[in-house]
Design brief:
The chain is an alpha/beta fold and 452 residues long. The protein is 29% helix and 26% strand.
Length: 452
């Protein structure tokens, strides 16, 4: 598959590296030579030092034969222009990075489609959604709702008091049980488990369940004593913080600590209709944190542009008694370190955005996709096509490759946990979990085909 990417920033370079490991034909365009930084010599990528809104540049880059064009420069208007030109030149699909929330309104999507833009991605909105989902359940590291909670994915760190340790999963996750374990992170290893695998102390386990059984999951993992989140302190007043504050549930109270006075004034304007309190100061200042009630705060969210600062601030908050911490970690090299230090939820905007873009490359019908950084695994929502291989036999007879498992499906709006005897039918939305770089193997089971 051929992909042309405009913009060698954090999202563009991360996506380029990801595609190069998947052996796709990738072209990366940027008019700043320093931003390209030897990408073509270190990865199997064609780097083009030119303007991504130049028609000649786009033609020379082969946009006319591109399966996907991605506009992820720093400038929204440039991304929209580049995508419009790429579509006119023959690119099959286009996606543009934006920073105007208004554009995501459903009534505006046909307008952008008419311009030749198939999808819009706003990384800060995607990150804010992950943050809010994590705050809603203080005892969960990661939460992902499918079809408004018809199915729910919960990433949970297993501590003392967990009732389901050291037992074969076949005895825990039978056909009539209300959850499945779909992935496990143990030390540095990722496990897509089978029936004989067991959960161990300090595992990070991913549960697939339905919303009504969340209280039951909370009980069996021994998390009932965790206090629900009502008071939140956010360090850093960037776009992600704004989106998080604006989408926070009414029962949560937020304080945003921002070190830049001018930005504080802007935050007060942006949050004028919101109850969030903006405080000018340094979120690492223990005196300020105590003054603002850190000891009566259930969650601390660090969203500055510096990963080290965010990690250290979360560690400080934990020492002051905050149980739920969230850190923005843009440097992927720090992700494992943050987990090793027991930082609760880790947010990385570029991986969230890259997952959204990557799903557009799938030939099967993929409604949603997420890269689970902590477990080096991917989860995707595939829609089973008429005549696809996955609809022809019960799950146990499909011969799924090692490292791929099906956790659940949604049929007619109802979430159903999948077992070996489940028969998937056309139109089912199916949640598939797999090790990194195996999604294309899973995709083959969901594409429409007459020859198998």
């Amino acid at each position: 598959m051929k992909v042309v990417i405009a913009g060698a920033g954090a999202v563009g370079t991360h996506l380029s590296k990801l595609l190069s490991t998947e052996h796709h034909d990738c072209v990366l365009i940027d008019d700043d030579e320093d931003r390209l930084g030897g990408m073509d010599s270190n990865y199997d990528i064609m780097a083009v030092n030119a303007s991504p809104t130049s028609i000649k540049t786009l033609k020379d880059a082969g946009v006319g034969s591109a399966d996907l064009f991605v506009g992820v420069t720093r400038y929204e208007s440039r991304n929209i222009t580049a995508c419009t030109l790429a579509h006119a030149l023959g690119a099959k699909k286009t996606v543009a990075r934006i920073d105007n929330y208004e554009y995501l309104s459903p009534q505006n999507l046909p307008f952008f489609h008419d311009l030749g833009i198939d999808s819009l991605v706003y990384p800060e909105v995607l990150a804010a959604t992950d943050i809010i989902n994590g705050l809603k359940l203080s005892w969960v590291r990661q939460r992902w709702d499918v079809h408004d909670g018809a199915l729910v994915l919960l990433g949970i760190k297993l501590r003392e008091g967990c009732e389901i340790l050291n037992q074969p999963l076949k005895d825990l996750c039978g056909p009539d049980d209300p959850y499945h374990i779909v992935a496990i992170k143990r030390n540095n290893d990722t496990i897509i488990p089978g029936g004989m695998d067991e959960l161990q102390l300090h595992d990070l386990a991913y549960f697939m369940t339905t919303s009504e059984y969340i209280p039951y999951i909370r009980k069996i993992v021994g998390k009932e004593h965790y206090e629900d989140v009502h008071n939140v302190i956010i360090m850093g007043g960037g776009k992600t913080a704004v989106r998080a504050a604006l989408t926070m549930p009414d029962y949560m109270n937020a304080k945003i600590i921002e070190i830049d006075a001018a930005r504080c004034e802007r935050l007060n304007q942006l949050l004028a209709s919101n109850d969030a309190m903006v405080i000018h100061g340094d979120g690492r200042d223990l005196g300020l944190l105590n003054e603002e009630g850190i000891r009566h705060t259930q969650a601390f969210v660090a969203l500055t542009g510096n990963a080290e600062t965010n990690i250290l601030a979360c560690l400080t908050a934990k020492k002051l008694g905050v149980r739920k911490t969230v850190a923005m970690v843009e440097n992927l090299d720090y992700v494992s370190m943050a987990e090793g230090l027991d930082i609760g939820t880790i947010i990385n905007k570029k991986t969230v955005a890259a997952s959204h873009i990557f799903q557009m490359m799938m030939k099967a019908d993929v409604r949603n996709m997420r890269s689970l950084m902590m477990v080096e695994a991917d989860v995707a929502e595939f829609v089973a096509a008429e005549g696809s291989k996955v609809t022809r036999k019960p799950v146990k007879d499909l011969g799924l490759p090692f490292g791929i498992t099906i956790g659940g499906l949604v049929r007619d709006g109802k979430g159903i946990l999948v077992n070996g005897n489940t028969q998937i039918t056309p139109g089912d939305s199916v949640m598939v979990f797999c090790h990194k770089h195996q999604l294309e193997k899973a995709e083959k089971y969901f594409k429409k085909s007459l020859l198998w």
